[in-house]
Amino acid sequence: MRKIFIGGSLESGERVMELARIIEAEGEEPVPWDKPGLFPLGGYTLEQLIKISRTVDGALFVFGEDDKVWYRNDMVYQPRDNVFIEFGIFAGQIGPERTVIAVSGNVKAATDLRGVITCNLDRPYQARIQLRQWLNGLALVRNEAGV
Questions:
Q1: Pick from 72, 53, 62, 64: which is nearest to 3 by CA?
Q2: Is residue 145's pLDDT more than 70?
Q3: Which positions ≥6 away from 27 have C-beta within 8 Å?
Q4: Of these four, 4, 100, 101, 147, which has the most CB atoms within 10 Å of its CB?
Q5: Once rounded to an integer, what is the mean pLDDT over residues 97-114?
Q6: Are strands 74-78 and 29-32 parallel, antiparallel or unpaired?
Q7: Which helix (H) or strand (E) holds 22?
Q8: What is the pTM of this model?
Q9: CB of 91 closer than 8 Å to CB of 60
Q10: Is-contact 102 19, C-beta < 8 A?
Q11: Residue 111 in this model has a pLDDT that exceeds 70
């Protein structure tokens, strides 16, 4: 059974739980960011995220319409800033092929993430198929990496 971290904002809590149910239905262990005990009192969030990234087989991050921001001359929605940072931590620690962006709504992402293939949670049937394929591919990614 593979452990899959699920990150997101407080506002995307329903989507995080939706992903947890999908992962569990596929026979894997979901590790949502708000799981009790995951971030112990007195700890440092950044340090704990790095530790968590070393114990999971994959990670999903919900990029939702969390914050309204002005970008050039338009008001747009983007994920909470910490979600971008946490995605980067996991992509750097376990690799981009093991770290997936799950988009909810019409969000603006950082320019450096343009071109990254994402999972669209607003299309549930397609999202479930994509996630199943990704989960099945994780075993291959780990074997190629010698893990």
A1: 53
A2: no
A3: 1
A4: 4
A5: 82
A6: unpaired
A7: helix 13-25
A8: 0.88
A9: no
A10: yes
A11: no
Q: What tokens appear for 69 in the block?
A: 């921001």
The pair phi, psi for residue 91, each rounded to 5°, is: -60, -35
Check whether 141 has a pLDDT greater than 60: no
For range 18-22, the mean pLDDT: 95
Burial of 90 (0-12, 13-18, 19+ CB in 10 A): buried
Q: Are 8 and 15 in contact (CB under 8 A)?
A: yes
Which tokens hold the place of 100?
A: 């997936």
CB atoms within 10 A of CB 96: 13
E strand intervals along 20-129: 29-32, 58-64, 67-71, 74-78, 99-104, 119-120
Q: Within 13 Å and on the Cβ side, how many CA atoms surround 79?
A: 24
How do beta strands 3-7 and 119-120 pair? Answer: unpaired
Structure tokens at 21: 């149910």
